Amino acid sequence: MTTNQFADFGIAGFGYSLGADQKVGTEVLTEFVDDPERVLQWGYRTFHRAPEEVTAIELSAKAALAAIEDAGLTVEDVDYVVLALSDVPGYLNWDASSALAHEIGVRLKPNLLLMEGCVSGVTGLGNVAGLFATDPTLRNVLFVAVNRVSEFHRNRMRVNNSIHSDGASAVVLRRGHDFGRWLTTVQFTDPDVSYWFRTEYGGEVAPVAPADWSSKTEANGLEAVVNHFRTDPKGLQEFVAALNRRLVEVTDQACERAGVTRDSLKKIIHLNDNQGSFEEIAEAFDVPIDRTSAEIAAQHGHMGAADHLVTLAEYCRSGELVPGDLVALIGISIGMRWYCTLVRI
Questions:
Q1: Which residue segments constitute the domains of the chain, with CATH numbers given?
Q2: Of 65, 57, 118, 121, which Cα lies nearest the Cα of 90?
Q3: How many whole angstroms separate alpha carbon 336 and alpha carbon 345?
Q4: Contact predicate 64/104, CB 8 Å
């Protein structure tokens, strides 16, 4: 394995904050969909729903302070704040990363806001690598990823074939730290379908929704996929076949760049997708499903950008991952993006 000569850093502390647990059953599902059996088939047991008054910044701050404490630091030790935000922001024309810095008391330090959907919770580690590479004075970077579903804009059970959850994860990334060492980040995109899964109203193009519009009945992202291929069924088949193949391709590219082999991966941590998707991913990677993060995904639902670091923290704290283990953080996100970050525990 080669050592990255430009950015040498690892994970010095973990923290996360989750919305209230909600068991996945017909009674709770009928609040969001009129066909709960469809959602039950996804295999989730629990999801997290924050109280209405709890914001993404509040979730992020709790996770951030927990990570700082876990690293044995104080907020004065934080040199840089990076926030990955994967749902609708609390306000327009607003820097949520600065709001987080204010909330936790990090003053007169630089900060960075990433808003590329759930991908930024993984590729954001590559962004941090760039910060370490270009600023030799950096020692401790606080990286936080949060998903707080805006239920006015998005139906958490109709975006795609996942239940969307509320949660934040955080890590303190320390220069020269041996545990949880970042190796590389690779991503590529298919920009021709960049409009899939977007929120139609609230932005510059369409700031106000029609009077009869509701997120509870709005067409979901998968319907946009079907509409895109309505006159090209062969194209749809080819795209579906390519989804998991490209996950393998991006992982292989990352392994080649890091000088490791795919068969040396102890764990493949995918975003918290449905259980059917995990079965397909295990088949594509030719590994048993317990080499993936399927079990933890069923416990949490899809927490957007927060998925991977919550899962990584739980595996490290349970002892399922130990120093020396190689982990791939992978996924597919808006864009459409395929991505992989490799971490050596």
A1: 1-345 (3.40.47.10)
A2: 57
A3: 29
A4: yes
Written as six digits, the tokens of 170 are: 């955080």
Q: Give the whole-angstrom CA distance, residue 317 versus residue 16.
A: 13
* CB-facing half-sphere around the CA of 281: CA atoms within 13 A: 26
Q: In what order do the strands lie in the sheet with 326-333?
A: 181-189, 337-344, 326-333, 265-270
pLDDT in tens, the chain (345 residues): 455 667 999 999 999 999 999 999 988 899 999 889 999 999 999 999 999 999 999 999 999 999 999 999 999 999 999 999 999 999 999 999 999 999 999 999 999 999 999 999 999 999 999 999 999 999 999 999 999 999 999 899 988 899 999 999 999 999 999 999 999 999 999 888 777 778 888 899 999 999 888 887 776 777 777 777 878 888 777 887 888 999 999 999 999 999 999 999 999 999 999 999 999 999 999 999 999 999 999 999 999 999 999 999 999 999 999 999 999 999 999 888 999 999 999
Look up the pTM and report it: 0.95
